[in-house]
Design goal:
- The protein is of the alpha/beta class.
- The protein has helices spanning about 10-25, 30-35, 115-125, 160-175, 195-205, 215, 225-230, 245-255, 300-305; strands at about 45-55, 60-65, 75-85, 85-95, 105-110, 130-135, 150-155, 180-185, 205-215, 235-240, 260-265, 280-285, 290-295, 325-335, 340, 345-350, 350-360.
- The chain has 9 helices and 17 strands.
- The longest helix is centred in the first third of the chain and has 18 residues, at about 10-25.
- The radius of gyration is 22 Å and the shape is globular.
- This is Ferredoxin-NADP reductase.
- Its cofactor is FAD.
- It comes from Sinimarinibacterium flocculans.
Length: about 350
Amino acid sequence: MADDRLPAATLNSARWLQRAAGALTWPLNPSDYLGALFADTAGGNAVVERIGHPTPDAVTLTLRVPRGFPRHRAGQFVRLGVDIDGVRHSRCYSIASAPERDDGCIEITAKAIAGGRVSAHLNELLRVGARLQIDAPAGDFVLPEWLPERLLFITAGSGITPVMGMLRSLDARGTVPEVTLVHAAPDAASMIYGDELAAFAARHPQVTLHRVYTRAQGRFDVSQLDAVCEGWAGCETWACGPDALLQQLEDHWQQAGIGARLHTERFRPRVPQAGDATAARVQFLRSARVVDGRGDQPVLDLAELNGLSPAHGCRMGICHGCTATLKSGCVRDLRNGKTFDEEGDLVQICVCAPIGDVEIDL
């Protein structure tokens, strides 16, 4: 068998060139410039065509995507690069428009987050004509090719955005099955896509819409399932919203023995389990920086708290935009407790926390 591995000298040269290119283009990545040159491929720059504010704390953007941009599947997300004060920040947003839309645009809706630099910029400072770096659509929170007879959607807040893409796609294809949608928001004024959801349900008698206004009614929980969807256990279910809601749904579906019928999408990572707050130290090799922290702090957070700006995207372990190489030590995935301790392991620093002393190639 032929040995296809590159000689060590070649690998070292390639790494040196990569680091040199990174130094020249910092704080952007070399790929940012390549994306501008080859905008016809998977990514490139999107142009803001229209800006709307469906609620006081949310913004809806219509983005014209670059020529040749891949068609998404309903429910997928894109990673956007937003330049703020000369530094590019990446975030992931679900596509709320249907894949069947044929005007060269997609739609996203971003809710302002307290202390969120990017969401605040999109809501308050972005203007029509602005250019945003955009990656190809990704994600597996999608409908199957063969639609089940009954669908149940449970969403809260901006968790409606991927489901909105699914509903619009079903509508465009004329294939709306029996649907129950439970959507929660603080009040009617805060309900993203509230009017469109009501119109959708009015057009389709097989669609049942339950709007939950949490300030008046309290939060939706699993004790209400039988009341809103008789026979819910027989439905294929998609849920997107706060972690507390999703965790409750996942536990309930697992206890019922139907965990495979529930599909969830998180906008934020799960809260780390108690007991992880032991002392840790991370050495960022390329940055020549040593940082002290705790075992319940993601490596990305430790880096940013100490003046570093690693590449990242979703901050919840979905987009893999933050992947870095572990050189020594051990890290733990805060979502599931899985550990990585082999030199050369690729770890997602937005969801992995250090255990003891760790070296990362950053």
